[in-house]
Amino acid sequence: QQAMIVKTEFTKTVSHELRTPLAAIKEGIGLVLEKLVGSLNEEQQEYLSIAKNNVDRLDRLISSVLNFQKLESGKMDFKMEACDINALVKQVRQEMLMLAEKKNLDFVLSLDENLPRPKVDCDKINEVLINLVNNAFKFTEKGGVTIITARVGDFIRVTVKDTGLGFKDGDLAKLFHEFTQLQRTTGGTGLGLVICKKIIEAHKGRIW
């Protein structure tokens, strides 16, 4: 128990400490890329864009670790309000449509128009859906992704379905384990699905 507390505090402290210099780096690269401090040639622009993409990715990784720690310690705040789940799904499609078009994949919605409006944290449910849809597109090369909503008893079920390769049956048990990636492609933390699981369970739901 003590070791877990030490680990949590260490991770939280390091993550916060990294954010200050990271913000300064992002600001500096942004100013140069916007040519506010002078002109750039094409090669300089290209290398700085690569640096900016990596800084942005590092920022996302740190955010994932901080969010995980908040959820793990029960310190994450939830703003519960009546939410139109179908409207949320349509918003997610709008946000992710460019990714679908870039890979020349379909992005289809199949919505039950008679859903109730449950009290949820809309932003956090949006975060879950963005994560699931992003994963679906990441590992899909042909076909596309479908989001399905339906009422099942007292629950609303939201399904994210893709035509990708999937994963081995033996990997199923590892799917929601922290710091685990079934297919290492992007250098992520392996926390995305764990965060999704904790958010859904905080809403008294389940994810599988």
Please tell me about this protein's structure.
This protein is α+β, with helices and mostly antiparallel strands. It has five helices and five strands. The chain has helices at 2-33, 42-73, 85-102, 122-138, 192-202; strands at 81-82, 106-110, 119-120, 144-152, 155-162. The strands form two sheets. It has a three-stranded mixed β-sheet with strand order 2-4-5, with helices on one face. The protein has a two-stranded antiparallel sheet with strand order 1-3. Helix 3 packs parallel to helix 4 and helix 4 (122-138) packs antiparallel against helix 5 (192-202). The protein starts with a helix and ends in a 6-residue tail after the last helix. The mean pLDDT is 83.
Task: Give the gist of this structure.
The chain is α+β, with helices and mostly antiparallel strands. It is built from five helices and five strands. The strands form two sheets. The chain has a three-stranded mixed β-sheet with strand order 2-4-5, with helices on one face. A two-stranded antiparallel ribbon has the order 1-3.
